[in-house]
Amino acid sequence: MKRRNLILNIVLILLVAVFTIYAQKNMDAYKLRILNLCAIYTILGLSMNLINGFTGQFSLGHAGFMAIGAYTTALLTMKIEFKEQIFYMKPLIYPLNSISMPFLPSLLIAGFLSALVGYMIGAPALRLKGDYLAIATLGFAEIIRVIITNAQSVTNGALGIKMIPTYTNLYWSFGFAVLTVVFMFLLINSSYGRAFKAIREDEIAAENMGINLYKHKMMSFVIGAFLAGLGGGLLGNLLGTIDPSMFKFVLTFNILLIIVLGGMGSISGTVISAFIITILGEVLRFLDKPMNLGFIKTPGIPGLRMVVFSLLLMIVVLFFRDGLMGTRELSWDSIQNVFVKFRKLVGKGGVKNESFEG
Amino acid sequence: MKKIVAAVLSIAMAASLMAGCSKQTQSENNDVIKIGVFEPMTGANAAGGQLEVEGAKLANKLYPEVLGKKVELVIMDNKSDKVEAASAAARLVEQEKVNAIIGSWGSSLSMAAGDIVKNAKVPAVGASCTNPLVTKGNDYYFRVCFIDPFQGTVMANYAFQKLNAKKAAIIQEVSNDYAVGLSKYFQDEFKKLTGDENSIVAIANYNTGDQDFSAQLTTLKDKNPDVIFAPGNFTESALIIKQARQLGIKAPFIGGDTWETPEFIKIGGKDVEGAVFSTHFTAEKPITKESEKFLAEFKKEYNKEPAAVSALGYDAYLVILDAIKRANSTDSDKIREAIAQTNGFEGAAGMITLNQDGDAVKNAVINVVKDGKFTYLDTVEPKK
Fold it and tell me: Which residues in A lie closer than 8 A to residue B87 (C-beta atoms)?
């Protein structure tokens, strides 16, 4: 059984790789952009789910970590001559003004810097619990944004940065998304992962079992911050331009929406919901346009598609507390079970399976 | 119960997917010229976006045809969100196959579309995005408004020449690219005019959404400036002026075009009387023949006074249409060429000449608040 699952997993990853190569070569810029966003939101959703869903620490500081990641990557990858043009009000400080690096090291530095800030924020904040932690992390995210707004000689302040090389393509975004998913599966199924879940279920019981609460919370927080920084970097280099107002609380909320709908504490749920929400947001654009329903003509109501998400969130919170997947995972065994059940159901209905195949 | 809800939901989702698909495949009509409008219709900047769309829609109604083909506006909401703005622009370019784009209110949203229009080689004309970075290094982005540096210089000149100010103080909305830009060029020009490096006596910062400005204003008061330049959002600016008067600051306040909203007067009340600001357009004194037409038609269509950004949205449409006419083609590259050559075009908000960066060189209007109304004061011509 295990062997079969391993083979299937490898096949799946290969399929994703083939799809990525095909899509990157054949799809238009719009579809590519949406797919890139799907992958980036997957990374961001997973990083937030690690902290909020698996470890049960209600943190709302994601926009801040993303801002650090995006700015670091942008400043490191930008071409030197563009830096002079963009920083026309206050020149960029040394040594940033003479650095231009490839994408991968910039992304990793962005992730590590974000993790470092996560460590510094986590050290005091993780002593708090529940709502208090949420408020503290939210505050820290705002502080990061205000610092970025005011540090004009590093970040160009409110003017924002443009001409960031748009390195992000499907190879980068899907590559990192797959790596993140694999890493998360390995982490969650390791002893650390079980410790995270134990903390989520009951902190006192977990501590009694000999789990170092502070160490594990910190670990989850720092890994989450690293991934958020990475995702932020990918996002910045996808857009080609960033500014501080991008990293407001709404951004954190978007990711929170993904993990709540997908299921707090489910990796596959987060992946599915990141894709569905990103694609649905674009597909539903027709709702904003004037509609002709045959018997009634409506004028274009901008924002109607947002109502769909609000409704979805309300329905999920009221009727399906656990979201799409809850804490369950989509695995090969569960898919097999569904097939078995389906067969039984069909069998009961008096139709034989063979007739389908024959 | 749950199962039923789940089933209904999934059917609704599936249906919406189908509906989305069918929409995209229809109307691949070559007899229609499509102009995309990407504007914030929802979110924080919705008010501004709506005004621009009103202008563009009116222009489309008055001038619905070019080269014998119908012009269709494709309006796309960008949610006042940078990520969304990029997607909306990409959608206009790739899915709707527009020939040109208008937009967007908010320079940062326009910048998000910059790379997309550049790569797709579709020209975009911004209406009121004043950040110099929007068009910088991008041959496919233009705008029909003047940029922050010009506005800052205009107000510095006004302060120096008309108000005889020798010392100026600045209170700026530091989280707003527009305010920071204006403030920078005001400082440069004012220092040059007075010939005094220390003529800017104080610079105070505040953030969007702040309510209490007493700390900043107290510092300004101590320096006793002749004039206070306060570029920023209208709500905060009105509150600043109000609180300044309460603190006994008598110096006149001057600002930029963001003040031109009814809310500014509503919040500021009597205290904003005499506040002077530069803007793109005035409803009081038609600048061109096109302005007269615009003013009359706008009142007829929407039954209200037009805002400056509506006039700019209107102009953006006309500039594109004019370019299509001159290019005598719907090819995006040829339209781009023609837009770049726009010279002395008569728009509703003044004559438009685009310089090599793609920025409009045009007159600025100076307005003052008088008897609870915006009143025309002066017109300033661009240098060169």
Answer: 30, 33-34, 37, 282
Could you tell me which chain A residue has the CA closest to the CA of B138? Answer: A163
User: Can you tell me whether residue B373 is helix, strand or coil?
Assistant: strand
What residues of chain B lie within 8 A of the CB of A282, using their CB?
87, 91
The rounded Cα A160 to chain-centroid distance in angstroms is 23
Phi, psi of B100 (to 5 degrees): -155, 165
State the SS3 of B312-365. Answer: HHHHHHHHHHHHHHHHCCCCHHHHHHHHHCCCCEEECCEEEEECCCCCEECCEE
What are the structural domains of chain B? 29-146+287-363 (3.40.50.2300), 149-279 (3.40.50.2300)
Of B95, B115, B133, the CB nearest to A166: B115
Tell me the ipTM for this assembly.
Answer: 0.85
CATH code of the domain occupying A2-288+302-327: 1.10.3470
Where do the structural domains in chain A lie, given as residue ranges?
A: 2-288+302-327, 331-358
Over range B339-349, report the average pLDDT.
90
In chain A, what residues touch B101 (CB-CB under 8 Å)?
none
C-beta atoms of B77 and A150 within 8 A: no
Q: What is the pLDDT of residues B21-54, one digit of tens each?
A: 444 444 445 678 999 999 998 887 888 888 899 9
- Tell me if A288 and B41 make a contact (CB, 8 A cut-off): yes
In this predicted structure, what is the pLDDT of residue B8? 60
